[in-house]
Design a protein that fits this description.
- The complex is a heterodimer of chains A (345) and B (147).
- Chain A has 345 residues and is of the alpha+beta class.
- Chain A is built from 6 helices and 7 strands; from the N terminus they run H-H-H-E-H-E-E-H-E-E-H-E-E.
- Chain B has a 5-stranded parallel sheet, sandwiched between helices.
- In chain B, helix 4 links the parallel strand 4 and strand 5.
- Classes of the chains: A alpha+beta (345), B alpha/beta (147).
- At the A-B interface, helix 1, helix 2 and helix 3 of A face helix 1 and helix 5 of B.
Chain lengths: 345, 147
């Protein structure tokens, strides 16, 4: 029996031990469960946090997708702009090229014009020099011809017969005439050089003045002169005065042989111009020569009949043409002539 | 020892002969020295070069000269004369073919007393020379300081 009680006591001790162990285990298990719950809570929190993070992440993802879309739009717009800019740039380059071509063309034209201006100026200078030369140098020998002929006449009067005197006179008259030709040629070329300075001209009073001056110089008071109420003209007064002087002088000159000489100065309105006319009842001319009238040194009459070098009308034509006008004439042999010239209004 | 009446500075022999003859014909003077270029004229007036030793105070009563002269031209000769104390009192008459305005202006600016255009015909030249001579040698009063 003792052994059984010992055994039971030993079993009880074992069992108590085992209970103690089991209680310890149970406690440990309870701790574990607590830890486990704890962990579970933690994990649940983690899970919640992770879910929150996932939600935030989704939202961010959506935002980022929105941003990405916006960026793509911007990139598209940017691409379009870039294409447009490239086109604009291409167009600008084309314009610049065209501009360069035009500029090059203009440069060529300008150089050409400058060259021409240079040539004209050189030609003008040469002409001026030529005129000066003519004026100065040709007169010397002329003077010598005239002077020494006279000396011959004076110092050798007894030794020269009538025929000799006549010959000497021809020499002297020729020298004088050459002097006049030189003067007229110079006058003609000077007209070519001078520029035209345009102002309003009171034609009526200018013609009055010219007629009086011509009458005085040529000393023919008995000519009947009618002057219409001429309209004002627009031109260079000095040059137009020259035109009128030449035409009026001619009118007086060629009516000298008439017993009732008459001159009329009138006008006609035209399109954008005024036609002025100087009419006389003198000896007139044959229309078949009307082309020659305005030529330099052209004359239709013999020297003995009417003096003059044949430059007067050439000067008239040159001056009128410089004003942008025209000259022409009509005439009938024995019945007078009319000389017309136009001036732009 | 006084100076000559007229110093004629003229390049052209024919013109000079005509003018000297005119002065003689019109009984203005025969006391004319003809010099043919500007440098020699200056030499004469200043008593230098070819005329070294000639006293400049014995100056001519009248100088007639052309514009176009060899070596030294007319305008320059006048400028030299008119800037020299002893010589600026001499009357100087420019007698030239030129009628150009710029020549006339240049001449007066250099100090000429008178500018006359050479006429085309001898008769006119006689008149012109006679008038010049009469005026400058007879009518015009010069200072006693010139001989």
């Amino acid at each position: 029996m003792e052994t059984t009680i010992q055994k039971i006591a030993g079993v009880e001790t074992d069992l108590k031990e085992r209970i103690r162990v089991l209680e310890g285990v149970q406690k440990a298990m309870m701790n574990l469960l607590e830890d486990f719950n704890f962990e579970k809570d933690r994990l649940e929190n983690s899970q919640k946090a992770t879910l929150n993070i996932l939600e935030d992440y989704d939202m961010e993802k959506i935002r980022l997708e929105g941003v990405q879309r916006a960026v793509f739009n911007i990139l598209e717009d940017f691409s379009e702009e870039k294409v447009r800019l490239v086109e604009t740039q291409r167009a600008s380059v084309n314009i610049l090229e065209d501009f360069e071509t035009e500029k090059a063309k203009l440069d060529v034209v300008n150089k050409e014009l400058e060259r021409e201006i240079g040539e004209r100026r050189r030609a003008e200078k040469e002409l001026e020099f030529f005129n000066y030369s003519v004026s100065h140098d040709l007169r010397g020998p002329l003077r010598a011809i005239d002077g020494f002929s006279k000396i011959l006449v004076e110092d050798y009067r007894g030794k020269v017969d009538e025929e000799g005197m006549r010959i000497l006179n021809v020499i002297m008259e020729s020298a004088k005439k050459m002097g006049r030709l030189i003067d007229e040629l110079l006058a003609l070329s000077r007209v070519g050089q001078k520029g035209v300075v345009k102002n309003k001209i009171d034609m009526r009073s200018l013609v009055d003045r010219v007629v009086h001056e011509v009458q005085r110089t040529l000393a023919c008071p008995s000519v009947r002169v009618v002057i219409q109420n001429l309209p004002d003209a627009y031109g260079d007064a000095i040059l137009i005065e020259q035109v009128l002087t030449n035409l009026v002088s001619n009118a007086f000159k060629f009516t000298r042989k008439h017993d009732k000489p008459a001159i009329e100065i009138g006008f006609q309105d035209g399109k954008g111009e005024v036609v002025y006319a100087v009419k006389d009842n003198g000896i007139g001319f044959d229309m078949k020569y009307h082309n020659k009238l305005f030529g330099v040194f052209e004359r239709l009459h013999r020297e003995e009949e009417f003096e003059g070098t044949g430059v007067g009308l050439a000067i008239v034509q040159r001056i009128v043409q410089k004003h942008g006008g025209r000259v022409w004439a009509e005439g009938k042999v024995g019945q007078g002539a009319t000389f017309y010239f136009t001036l732009p209004s | 020892m006084k100076g000559i009446d007229v110093l004629l500075v003229e390049d052209s022999l024919t013109d000079a002969e005509l003018m000297i003859r005119a002065l003689k014909r019109q009984r203005i003077t025969q006391d004319v020295l003809h010099i043919r270029d500007g440098q020699e004229a200056l030499d004469y007036l200043f008593g230098e070069g070819l005329y070294a030793g000639r006293p400049p105070e014995n100056c001519p009563k009248l100088v007639m000269l052309d514009l176009k002269l060899p070596k030294v031209n007319g305008v320059e000769v006048v400028q030299r004369i008119k800037s020299e104390e002893k010589l600026k009192v001499i009357p100087v008459v420019m007698v030239t073919s030129s009628k150009e305005e710029k020549d006339i202006l240049r001449s007066y600016q250099s100090g000429v007393n008178s500018f006359v255009s050479k006429p085309l015909t001898f008769d006119e030249l006689l008149n012109v020379v006679s008038e010049i001579g009469c005026y400058w040698l007879l009518l015009n009063r010069s200072s006693e300081n010139i001989n």
